[in-house]
Amino acid sequence: MLAEIGLASLTLAFALAVYAIAATACGARRSSAGLVLSGRNAALLTFPAALLATSALVGALMTEQYQFAYVYSVTDPQTPALYRFTALWGSQKGSLLLWSLLMSAFTSAAIGLNWRAERRLMPYAIAFMMATLAFFLGLSLFVENPFERWWILPDAPPAEQVVSTALIPPGAIAPTEANLRAGAEGLNPLLRHFGMVIHPPMLYLGFVGFTIPFAFAMSALASGDLSTGWIKATRRWSLIAWICLSIGLILGGRWAYDVLGWGGYWGWDPVENAAFLPWLVGTAFIHSVMIQEKRGMLKLWNMALVIASFSAVMFGAFATRSGVIESVHSFARSEVGFPMLAFWAALTLVALAMLLWRWRQGELRDERQFANLLSRESLFVLNNVVFIALFLAIFWGSFGLPITSELLLGKEVTVGAATFEFYVVPLFIAMYVLMGVAPLSAWGATSLRRLGAALKLPLGLTIASIAAIALSGTGIAVALFGYGVVVFAAYVALIEIYRGAAARRRALGEGWLRAVSALFRRNQRRYGGYIVHLGVTVIGIGVIASTVFQTETQHTLARGEAIAVQDYALRYDDFIRAQAVDGRMMNIAAVTVFRAGGEIARLRPRIDDYPQLPMKIAGAHSTLENDFYVLLMSGDRERATFRIYINPLVNLVWWGGILLVIGTVIAAYPKVAPASAGPKSEAEAT
Amino acid sequence: MSLPRPETQLSCLSKPNPGRSARNACYPLLTLLALFALSAQAWAQTGGVTDNDVIRVAERMYCPVCENIPLDDCETIACVEWKEEIRAQLAAGRSDQAVIDSFVARFGDNVVGVPQDPVLRALTVIMPLLATALAIGVGAFTFRRFGAQPRLTSPSPLGTYESDRESSGKSAGEMTDEALRQRLEDDARGRR
Lengths: 686, 192
What we know:
The complex is a heterodimer. By secondary structure, chain A is α+β, with helices and mostly antiparallel strands. Chain A folds into three domains: 2-373, no CATH class; 446-541 and 665-685; 551-652, no CATH class. Chain A has 22 helices and twelve strands. Chain A has helices at 2-30, 33-62, 69-74, 81-86, 92-114, 122-143, 177-183, 195-209, 211-223, 229-260, 270-295, 299-322, 328-333, 337-360, 376-409, 417-437, 448-471, 477-508, 512-522, 524-548, 651-668, 679-685; strands spanning 149-152, 162-165, 551-558, 562-565, 568-579, 585-595, 598-603, 606-609, 614-617, 619-622, 626-635, 639-648. In chain A, α1 (2-30) packs antiparallel against α2, α6 packs across α9 and α20 runs antiparallel to α21. The longest helix of chain A is centred in the middle third of the chain and has 34 residues, at 376-409. Chain B is mainly α. Chain B has three domains: 6-44, no CATH class; 48-111, Cytochrome C biogenesis protein (Helicase, Ruva Protein, domain 3); 114-146. Helix content of chain B is 58%, strand content 0%. In chain B, α4 (51-58) crosses α5. Chain B is elongated, with a radius of gyration of 32 Å. The termini of chain B are far apart. Chains A and B meet through α11, α15, α16, α17 and α18 of A and α2, α3, α4, α7 and α8 of B.
């Protein structure tokens, strides 16, 4: 019954989305309010339909209906309830359905929140949102259907007797429950981690979130309403998409650190990079959009960035789902590969064509002149240049070079971390320098003398900090330089907050806490932005320390033997083999960690034996100073081999991520206009 | 080479911390034991090649089966065999680069993270530089457009909200306290 409900509601959602495209587009062309309204209602109904379809699949997962081919492939009778639920996004079919559900939810929310304020933009915006939704629903319905079930065709030749189809074939009988339960494959062990509960949905929220600004931008181009209306409508959507993507990336790093067992959190893997690319363009956009709002500039550029961010999302989805990362041959075998490539290319080309059309008509002309190279808008443009250069370089390393090499030279190549670090490090340095300088510059025009005067204090503090770090024994010049660049940006953010609060204290006699609080309330975006900058600098310090100063060593120890690593010692105490509740066998090493003469931790690194692959789960003693991170590589009761990492300041990566999230929430949180507010304050509050 | 049981070997570590002098006394012993254990362990392995020597080479290589997984982190059968071969080659006196070159010669460019083919290697370096140049070019084009377009008389409808330095053209660093105070007072009264 669940399969029928799921299939029917998925079909209904697809039909509603297709109808909404036609109704809103025709309604806008013919100026028919009735058609537009009908299309809007159809668009709103896609959410309950997609929710019903998703609920049917979740119901099948939770109630162990292994006749569903999807349930059979991602769960087994030992799978705990939490991972039964997260199995929804454990494989392609379920994750595509989740994508559609989130897309329909975002679309409904965008329609609900912007319908009255942006009536002129809404018809085409709905059409573009529904086009994206219809594509993903269509994939679920026609290519990767999660409601396919196993059937036995007794009259067919033996090799063709077992099939999985969405509709019941004539004469088919269902396999026995016992056979299905015995053969169920279970969830990929890599996905059995708490981070996987949140990480993929956050990434998907980020991905689908970028569809909303894209749809409004396309609507502005299609309708010719190229005022700042589309930016007002999508400003917060961009921030929401950006924060979700940021959380997804940070959680992904944490998951890699905990589960993949290599002592790191970012490996420049193409799948990671596919999620990072839209983040880079999105970051460029949320900076440059301020210039259009404040100065009426960069209209063409902002449109291009919105198109690029959506295009990067679609390309990332295509690249990670089609198998093109593995090789172009995998892509050729993939069923979703060609449709996704075609959709990505078609929508990107249509968007670029519309952009060029409006640009050639002179409708994207800026309202103000460029003043000088040191103005804040100029520095923002430079910031955008850095982000776009990062985007292009990472895109080339992740996809461009491997695909070109395989297609043109017939050679498979791997572009590893060393290659990426060679060219992204200088660009990240430039990013941090601009993050420090730009907030000190003024809109419109700034002289070198004025900017130099503003830079004196943060630069002085930076030099003092670097001297202190060097005196404390850190002698590696690269690290000192890196710390300097990052700390400089942090000081600028802190000084700006301090200046604002100090001025309030003098002007209004407020206490520090009240002054800071009022400062953030009055100008959420600016001061929330500074908190985001602080978060990024904290992450930067963590990345530099844990990369440059990481210690890695591997040793085999007899039981009772100890090994010293820096000022730590690790003793191998015991080896235990145990069975977990989900049936997997665990090989657990008991080790004790000592430091400065005292025991500081007892860790249990282990290897979990799954049928698919063994998983090394690290034991870690975490402090703000560092992580003492131990992996059991192999072993038995008498001897065991351990790989030990000491990762200095690695926890700052996660703490910086939390700061970044807090800052973005402050910046994006809806503001309530004060009762006495004038027209401009009201405009800000919208 | 076996060492004494932990109670004997690390007795100074397992006691409650008795004070600074006791700890200091413990360091040389601990270091000595560790060095002894390290060297004994290293010697026991193939030809004096340690696990760390193998890792040093393997972390510059990639799994031949899995996509983008460094060799030293991968535990597939192929990778375990490759690591043993690295150990054997190092034990035979080959340099790190010679070991890597031997794998590249047999299995191709995809066993290392930096393409070895001269054309691909050049593309790896040149294309990001071109990308940066392209981004700078787009930025320069944007600046040029700023300069080329006539200034409109009416400001952007959203051009002044939340503005801080726009009106004065001064940066916070050189803004006087008085100006900053005036701005904040205006802000507090909700007149902005």
